[in-house]
From TrEMBL:
It comes from Trifolium pratense. PANTHER family: OS01G0519700 PROTEIN, OS09G0290500 PROTEIN. Residues 72-162 form the FAR1 domain. Residues 579-611 are annotated as: Disordered. This is Uncharacterized protein. Residues 282-376 form the MULE transposase domain. Signal peptide: none annotated. Residues 588-611 have a biased composition (Acidic residues). It comes from the Eukaryota. InterPro entries: FAR1_DNA_bnd_dom (IPR004330), MULE_transposase_dom (IPR018289).
């Protein structure tokens, strides 16, 4: 197709052209393109273009559906010519619609003076790269065709271009796309280290210089996924949902607060439900674990099996430890366990737990946990002798008269007659003292205590629990490998590329319409959409705190220079180190000159001798 455009040199007084004058002459150019523009609708249309041979005028031959595609187009052009682009000013019409966008060189403008000598900055200032480069590209919106096109182009740079092997480290070209992150995550799930994954990327693209990101970018991508807003809550629900495919009896339930944040989350798998059906006559109810980022109590419902091993019936994460919260948890437990109530519940003595158990399990015996009692005795009395005697009173099978006598002797010996915790424990002696548990009625001897307990279980696991779909990963790797093989064959042949990209586009539309799965995360829960579910608020501690990692007060140690030891800079920017290095380099040069001079004299002497 014959290119039809007119090149117009703008004068310095023409404000519409924003002309510029330099020592080398007028550098700002405006092109009025008269021909038919070629549509660029996405990255797939850019694969057949040779940006390396593009002239600035040829950029006007194309139009785009939106500003993002236009910026990608110009950024690809900048990559092939040794610089990178970034977005700059926009212009709006009277309806506040964006009608013009300016793309500039990454070295456009200057660093503001207030950022050059900032005395209170926390991190060391980066190297100054802005040098006032005037290169830019302006795209404008055509209301008739509803397309964006290049209206202005200035391709003059006042700085040298970057070598090809360093292009990938410019800010506009450095970074990981979604496909790179997905591939990295698959490798990490296989146990491959990040540095080795980086080597795999380099092998795919033909060398480390062609990788558009660094190892640190990979670490940053992993950290960003962990810290991304709302991801933890949605990821937790997505993981529980994935368990449903292999465990049909998997149960979970959650609540959301008024701000759209996850409040309470309860879950129990099929194995836990089966264990509760057999071993759920005694239920341990504990909420002392807070080892998570949001300090939310982790509530564990557990018991023991016929081998005296701990078995977990259900688990929950809650935002607070109020009575209403515990009532909601116990109601969820009843719902998933088909209404079966425990005969005895063991807790740490929390008042909210006690009231909730009384409301939901009115016929259950409430007992206190021996481990918590020993720990509380140690922290409240701080006497090894008292802890030893209290443990014997709790676990030994005394008669009631002997229990009262030994209790009084212990209180008198340790001098804790007025200790509030000791007085409170005496009032609750029926809940923890073995002396008040006389015998086990024969009607309470359950089948689970017999040897044929396994015959009662007919639960069959229908697959491994977890979100790791090994077959899906294998299929992904197989398709990815075949695509790379196709890429290596057709990327150097324009005709093969055009044929392949057309086939892929057609097949992509067919596959997407036939096999695309709707996002299951859009299920609504109590009037809220999971898609916008936020992370839980950091919970306030209840009777616990202090040793929590990441709490305020653990200030980061300031780094200091490895050469002079002064805080505020490093060795590479140390003035003393640069001065010493400059002195050493200069002395090396002087030594070389002396050696060269001495060699010449010797040669002259040899010549004289020869004559």
């Amino acid at each position: 197709m014959e290119t039809e455009y007119e090149e117009q040199i703008c004068s310095p007084t023409d404000n519409s052209c924003e002309g510029l004058e330099t020592e080398s002459g007028t550098i700002n150019m405006k092109f009025d393109y008269k021909g038919h523009r070629i549509p660029i609708n996405g990255v797939e249309d850019m694969g057949g273009l040779n940006f390396k041979k593009f002239t600035p005028a040829e950029l006007l031959q194309y139009d785009f559906p939106n500003r993002e595609v236009a910026f990608t187009f110009y950024n690809w052009y900048s990559r092939m010519h040794g610089f990178s682009a970034r977005k700059n000013r926009i212009r709006r019409n009277k309806d506040q619609e964006v009608v013009q966008q300016e793309f500039v060189c990454y070295r456009q403008g200057f660093r503001e003076d207030r950022f050059k000598d900032n005395k209170i900055r926390q991190r060391e200032a980066k190297v100054v790269t802005r040098c006032g480069c005037e290169a830019k590209c302006t795209v404008h919106f055509d209301h008739i065709n509803q397309r964006w096109y290049v209206r202005w182009i200035n391709d003059y740079h006042n700085h040298p271009f970057v070598e090809e092997k360093f292009i990938g480290f410019l800010p506009g070209h450095r970074g990981m796309d979604d496909d790179d992150i997905l591939q990295m995550n698959h490798h990490k799930k296989s146990g491959i280290r990040t540095s080795q994954i980086f080597g795999s990327f380099a092998n795919q693209v033909g060398g480390y210089e062609h990788v558009t990101f660094s190892v640190q970018d990979m670490y940053n991508a992993v950290d960003k996924e962990r810290r991304s807003k709302g991801t933890d809550s949605r990821a937790a629900l997505a993981y529980l949902r994935s368990l449903k495919s292999s465990d049909p009896t998997m149960y979970w339930k959650h609540t959301v607060d008024k701000q759209g944040r996850l409040e309470h989350l309860f879950w129990s798998d099929g194995r836990s439900q089966m264990d509760y059906n057999i071993f759920g006559d005694v239920l341990a109810f504990d909420a002392t674990y807070k080892k998570n980022r949001y300090l939310c109590p982790l509530v564990i419902f557990s018991g023991v099996n016929h081998h005296n091993q701990t078995t977990v019936f259900a688990t929950a994460i809650v935002a607070n430890e109020t009575e209403e919260t515990y009532v909601w948890l116990l109601e969820c437990l009843l719902e998933v366990m088909n209404g079966k109530m425990p005969k005895s519940v063991i807790t740490d003595g929390d008042l909210a737990m006690k009231n909730a158990i009384r409301r939901v399990f009115p016929n259950a015996h409430h007992r206190l946990c021996a481990w918590h009692l020993i720990r509380n005795a140690t922290s409240n009395v701080k006497s090894n002798r008292f802890t030893h005697l209290f443990r014997k009173l709790m676990l030994c099978d005394y008669e009631l008269v002997d229990f009262e006598r030994k209790w009084n002797d212990m209180v008198t010996e340790c001098g804790v007659e007025d200790n509030n915790w000791v007085l409170d424990m005496y009032e609750k002696k029926e809940m923890w003292a073995t002396a008040h548990i006389r015998e086990i009625p024969s009607s309470l001897v359950l089948d689970r205590w017999t040897k044929n307990v396994k015959d009662l279980s007919n639960y069959t696991r229908q697959g491994q629990s977890g979100g790791w779909d090994s077959m899906s990963v294998c299929r992904y790797k197989s398709l990815n490998q075949r695509c790379r093989e196709i890429n290596s064959l057709v990327c150097k042949n324009p005709e093969a590329y055009a044929e392949t990209i057309e086939l892929l586009n057609d097949h992509y539309g067919h596959v997407k319409s036939k096999y695309e799965v709707q996002d299951e995360g859009s299920d609504k829960m109590e009037g809220h959409n999971e898609r916008y579910l936020q992370n839980p608020v950091i919970a306030r501690t209840k009777g616990r705190g202090g040793n929590v990692a990441g709490r305020a007060g653990n200030k980061r140690k300031k780094s200091q220079c490895g050469f002079c030891g002064i805080v505020g800079h490093n060795k590479q920017t140390c003035a003393a180190f640069k001065k010493q290095k400059k002195t050493v380099d200069k002395s090396d040069v002087d030594d070389d000159e002396e050696d060269d001079g001495g060699g010449d004299d010797d040669d002259d002497d040899d010549d004289d001798d020869y004559r």
